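Form 7-S
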Amino acid sequence: MKKFGVIIKEALPTLGKKPFTILYPFERVPVPEKLRGKPVLDTEKCRGCKVCICEKVCPAEACKKITIGDEVERLAFWYDRCVFCGECAERCPWGAVSMTNEFELAAYDIESLYGHPEFPKSEEALEYIEKLRERKRMKQQKAKEAKAAKAAQEAKEAKPTQEAKEAEEEKAPENKEAAKEQPKEDEQ
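Output:
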């Protein structure tokens, strides 16, 4: 009976008050401003860094750099792996990753938990992408020219050696004949 008295003591003061719980999906509690929710990539700001810091600092390996379109590299997020630490948003040098207030990421299929980046549409981003493409073309062209120059140099170096081998081969029969004649002279 003592336990029943303790329960009544606890229950009576709360009978006239509003319940502490809410009907969650139907009633919402305001989300704090600095909530670290779903990370989102702004493709207009992302520069597709060669060594992507956002990708390197992610403890859960939830963001990876992928290629979209021709040669444009951007971050993609796997929200099923993300621990919402916010490291990617803090470390991005261009401020392209931001944390939203969205925290309800339940899904029926795993593909909906994959954040695929879109191709950038702003003129500034498209100009930057074109500059990157031009740099890449120039680099490839220089590599081809260097390869051709190296092949030409090797061909020049190989040509004298071939001539020397041919000269030796021409002298070789004379040397062989001379070598054969010497023992014959010694025998006489």
